[in-house]
Amino acid sequence: MPIGVAVSGAQSIGLFAADADAMIAVQPERDLVDRFDAATSKRVPKIGQQPICWDPDKDEAVRRAHEQFRWFAGGWKVNAELPGPSGFAAATQFVRPEDVAASIS
Asked: Is this prediction's pTM over 0.70?
């Protein structure tokens, strides 16, 4: 089964690129692709991740987006430093559904 690896910088690339069948990134940064390609001897697909939430009912879509993507408001650099679920809960406790809806399609 193919393995896609989400990367955000040198550490994640260094740890996982050699074993990956695909690279996944949330930022369209050329440097990530260049570093990833340099860390592996094979060319693999590059996948851009974009959070999207759809539902026939807009309020339900916003509720679900808040439930699943409220981390989005803090940005990757903040989330990468969180020590675990309790840190995540504390960091996102004041993120409102409308905050998430403003940044996720």
From this structure: no
